[in-house]
Amino acid sequence: MKNVTVSPKFQIVIPKEVRQQAGIRPGQKMTVFQIGDIIELAPVKDVKTLRGSLAGLRTEVDRTERSVP
Fold it and tell me: Taking the complete model, does pTM exceed 0.85, yes or no?
């Protein structure tokens, strides 16, 4: 675990080792999640780079009409 300091402008620097392992590049967009008092960052991925990442996912959709009781 790495510690970072929040600047007066509320900015942080992601440690080099973490940036390299996550493949984060300058200018890359990040999504911020908050769960309670925990804040997480996740790199925004281009849809094209996600192709094939859900191998084995069932994609068939049952489109038959069903009566609503």
Answer: no
